[in-house]
Specification:
The strands form three sheets. Strands 1, 2, 3, 4, 6, 9, 10 and 11 form an eight-stranded mixed sheet that branches. The protein has six helices and 13 strands. Helix 3 crosses helix 4 and helix 3 packs antiparallel against helix 6. It is 23% helix and 22% strand. By secondary structure, the chain is of the alpha+beta class. It folds into two domains: 159 residues, Roll (Pdz3 Domain), CATH 2.30.42; 74 residues. Belongs to the GIPC family. This is GIPC PDZ domain containing family, member 2. InterPro entries: GH2_GIPC (IPR055349), GIPC1-3_GH1 (IPR056814), GIPC1/2/3 (IPR017379), PDZ (IPR001478), PDZ_sf (IPR036034). It comes from Lates calcarifer.
């Protein structure tokens, strides 16, 4: 079996503000739809005339006029378009949610956007520094990232070490651990660093919370529950944002895709302390037509970069994809 180190892909137009435009039902206006003429992972972004001609509506989550964006092929370009629309710097954007201005991890923008989804951008707010006493091996955090260099907290386990530190909240960007700046560090590395901190000692976190409007202030959420069934996107089709290669317009995820992606995402949290729907969707896509674990393992090795997976995790992912194919979920 060629099992061993797997490497994950690096996650890596013309806008204007629409004054006094009402947002109804959380749906975005859609321009002309066209399939991208370029396919395949590992390719450079296509020229502008080959990109999907889609228009999305967007707002800053804490309140703003409505902006319109188009012409992006990946998450970094999406943030750039939003930043240009609102005259802010792209690094100010922490993450985006779909169809809600709330810090709702069930609605987090991942690798797919429904063609009628409304995009809310959460930008940097208050900075805070907190000391945490690691009384147990597990802190109770699930980490994800925004695809553009920021790792943030997606879930806090009830009754965990971090749950007892009320200043730490779901949605907080982790900027430093014990004085070490981790901006640009992938979420799986951040999860590993936190796991390897010595037990029965204090450590320090520098965090940046998303900016909130006054009416958004509410009790801290525990974040997305791993057992929830959530469809990816709400539009009649989706724009698939890829780490490598062009964005493509696709049909809504099938029941097989939704169940398989959810199960693989759960396995990522169980084994690695992260959640990453884009990575999960990529693994499902890679394994869809593979006939055995050996073939699946080789395909993962060719497709993913910079990600070390345990062998048992690879077998479990293969099994989860097979269960979804057989409708055993």
């Amino acid at each position: 079996m060629p099992l061993g180190p797997w490497r994950k892909k690096n996650k890596s137009t013309k806008e204007h503000l629409v004054e006094n435009e009402e947002v109804s039902g959380g749906h975005a206006g859609v321009g002309s739809l066209s399939k991208s003429a370029v396919n395949g992972a590992g390719l450079p972004p296509p020229p502008a005339n080959l990109r999907p001609k889609l228009v999305f509506h967007t707002q800053l989550a804490h309140g703003s006029p409505t902006g319109r964006i188009e012409g992006f092929a990946n998450v970094k370009e999406l943030y750039g378009k939003i930043a240009e629309a609102f005259n802010i710097s792209p690094p100010e954007i922490l993450f985006c949610t779909l169809n809600t201005h709330k810090i709702d991890m069930d609605k987090l923008l991942g690798g797919q956007i429904g063609l009628e989804d409304f995009i809310f951008a959460h930008i940097k707010g208050i900075k805070k520094e907190v000391e945490v006493y690691k009384s147990e091996d597990a802190l109770g955090l699930t980490i994800t990232d925004n695809g553009a260099g920021y790792a943030f907290i997606k879930r806090i386990k009830e009754g965990s070490v971090v749950d007892g530190v009320k200043v730490i909240c779901v949605g907080d960007h982790i900027e430093c651990i014990n004085g070490r700046n981790i901006v640009g560090t992938r979420h799986y590395e951040v999860a590993r660093m936190l796991k390897e901190l010595p037990r029965d000692k204090l450590f320090t976190l520098k965090l940046v919370e998303p900016m909130k409007a006054f009416e958004m202030l509410e009790p801290r959420s525990k974040g997305a529950k791993p057992a929830t069934d959530n469809k990816i996107g709400t539009g009649r089709g989706t724009l698939r944002l890829r780490s490598k290669g062009p964005a493509t317009v696709e049909e809504e995820p099938t029941e097989f895709e939704e169940k398989a992606v959810k199960k693989v995402d759960d396995l990522l949290e169980s084994y690695m302390g992260i959640r990453d729907t884009e990575l999960a969707a990529t693994m499902v896509e890679v394994g869809r037509d593979k006939k055995n674990p050996d073939e699946f393992a080789m395909a993962l090795d060719e497709t993913l970069g910079d990600f070390a997976f345990p062998d048992e995790f690879v077998f479990d992912v293969w099994g989860a994809i097979g269960d979804a194919k057989q409708g055993r979920f």
